[in-house]
Amino acid sequence: MAPVVVGVSLKMYFGHAAAKDWFARVADRVRSHPGLASGAVELFVIPTYLQILPARDAFAGSPVRIGAQDVAVADSGPFTGEVSAAELAEVGVSIAEIGHAERRRLFGETDDAVAAKAAASLRGGVTPLVCVGEAERLGPKAAAAATVAQLRRSLSGAPAGPVVVAYEPVWAIGASEPAPVEHIAAVTTALRMALDIAPDRAGSSVIYGGSAGPGLLTELGRSVDGLFLGRFAHDPENLAAVLDEATALAETRVAS
Ligand SMILES: O=C(CO)COP(=O)(O)O
């Protein structure tokens, strides 16, 4: 059974010293976590580019995966400011976040750019973490249709390989509470079906992000493969609580 996936993006919340402090506290808290140790739960941490090396060092010897918040569309060459998937892989990054709502909205990232980055990631041996989600509040059916279509566009032309899809309704990011459980379940179920029928995406997962914190995974149960946390992971105790819930969820998945 594939592990339950818990991810954290630190976005640009922490400076260098604060990020290092968070890595040390989280590493301390999760190093002997039974869910992580058994492989039932997978944790990835996505700091800024500059924080990747200290994160790798802080989590060395643990199964925690280190991610990047973006990746270049090209493999090498004159692309000022960009970092290639191959270089990310070289320093131990195994997952690259692509098409987050903030990048789509603030930096004009299109589905075409997302698809090119997903392709570059897979070519470079880095798992794409493809972020999708409706911009406006819609009913669950319309949101599912819009999000599945966005996922198809976001993976168009990408080579075969597993992806992690983060369903993040834009209106639930940075909010006081997540989207309603029934809404999330309707969309994640549709996304999973779309991945299941894709011939080349075996082993993919669908996780939810957007004001996610302790308690949500238990409510969502098996309608998701995990959670993608933002602000509510700044307190390592919250993250530990979510990892406990993920471990309990993994047990129900094995039991079925
Ligand atoms: O965008 C998110 C994770 O990438 C979610 O962030 P928040 O949980 O802070 O809303």
UniProtKB/TrEMBL annotation:
The keyword Iron does not apply. Signal peptide: none annotated. The keyword Isomerase applies. Pathway: Carbohydrate biosynthesis; gluconeogenesis; Carbohydrate degradation; glycolysis; D-glyceraldehyde 3-phosphate from glycerone phosphate: step 1/1. It is found in: Cytoplasm. It comes from the Bacteria. Keywords: Cytoplasm, Gluconeogenesis, Glycolysis, Isomerase. GO terms for biological process: gluconeogenesis; glyceraldehyde-3-phosphate biosynthetic process; glycerol catabolic process; glycolytic process. This is Triosephosphate isomerase.
